[in-house]
């Protein structure tokens, strides 16, 4: 694909070719009046000593959006930090049977696909980044939206009815699952925690990559699922 610079270069070459052709000897005619180039408002503004107006900043580059994304990533890092020591016990002790090692690896593969890829990368990660960016698009967002930006980005409040139901159901369900897993004996708790750690790590990485792309000018194109405006 030819870029803008290449297109300009080819246009300049064509112009020079026509200019060379016009330089051939011709009958002398009266010189045409010179046309003064039009001065744009930006040039006038700069000539008067003013700064050249800049383009509006990307919504991803504001403090509110950064706090929403990075705050949620901090929650994931804390969860991984609590689970990782238990998940790594079999690797340190090396006392699992062949069957248990198979379940250990299968747990990580299953959570990587179901939780990390399907749930986070394809659905939840773009939503978190998109909702965090809406804090910057609003002219004056409520203060509690900004203070609680990580939870706002998760869709726990100021979201569509469906999104709030899904987000709260997942949060409460995860809390119950964590409570149940804590009661599992070794090595089964380590087997489950290893899979959860891999899923959360995959999800956190996908959020970081999507946010980096948004900072570079390529935001996710998903519905932020905000509440419908009141009539």
What does this structure look like?
It is a single chain. This protein has 231 residues and is mainly alpha-helical. 67% of the residues lie in helices and 0% in strands. The protein is built from nine helices and no strands. It has helices at 4-22, 41-47, 63-87, 89-93, 98-137, 143-147, 149-153, 161-181, 188-215. Helix 3 runs antiparallel to helix 5 and helix 3 (63-87) runs antiparallel to helix 9. The radius of gyration is 29 Å and the shape is elongated. The two termini are 47 Å apart. Mean pLDDT is 81; it is low at 1-33, 39-47 and 49-56.
Low-confidence stretches: 1-33, 39-47, 49-56
Find the count of extended strands (DSSP E, 2+ residues): 0
- N-to-C order of helices and strands: HHHHHHHHH
Mean pLDDT: 81
Strand content: under 5%
Overall radius of gyration: 29 Å
Q: What's the number of helices?
A: 9
Q: Structural class, judged by helices and strands?
A: mainly alpha
**Morphology:** elongated
Major sheet: none
- Amino-to-carboxy terminus distance: 47 Å
Estimate the helix proportion, in percent. 55-70%
Summarize the SSE layout with pairings.
Blueprint: H1 4-22, H2 41-47, H3 63-87, H4 89-93, H5 98-137, H6 143-147, H7 149-153, H8 161-181, H9 188-215
């Amino acid at each position: 694909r030819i870029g803008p610079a290449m297109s300009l270069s080819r246009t300049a070459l064509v112009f020079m070719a026509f200019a060379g052709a016009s330089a051939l000897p011709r009958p002398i005619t009266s010189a045409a009046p010179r046309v003064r180039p039009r001065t744009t408002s930006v040039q006038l503004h700069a000539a008067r000593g003013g700064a050249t107006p800049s383009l509006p900043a990307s919504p991803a580059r504001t403090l509110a959006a950064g706090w929403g994304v990075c705050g949620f990533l901090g929650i994931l890092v804390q969860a991984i930090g609590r689970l990782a020591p238990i998940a790594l016990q079999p690797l340190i002790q090396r006392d699992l049977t062949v069957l248990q090692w198979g379940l250990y690896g299968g747990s990580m593969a299953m959570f990587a696909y179901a939780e990390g890829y399907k749930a986070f990368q394809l659905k939840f990660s773009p939503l978190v980044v998109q909702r965090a960016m809406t804090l910057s698009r609003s002219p004056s967002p409520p203060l509690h939206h900004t203070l609680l930006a990580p939870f706002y980005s998760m869709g726990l409040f100021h979201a569509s009815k469906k999104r709030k139901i899904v987000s709260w159901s997942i949060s409460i369900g995860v809390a119950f699952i964590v409570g149940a897993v804590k009661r599992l004996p070794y090595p089964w708790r380590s087997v489950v925690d290893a899979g959860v750690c891999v899923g959360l790590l995959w999800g956190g990485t996908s959020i970081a990559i999507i946010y980096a792309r948004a900072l570079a000018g390529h935001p996710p194109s998903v519905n932020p699922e905000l509440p419908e405006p009141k009539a």
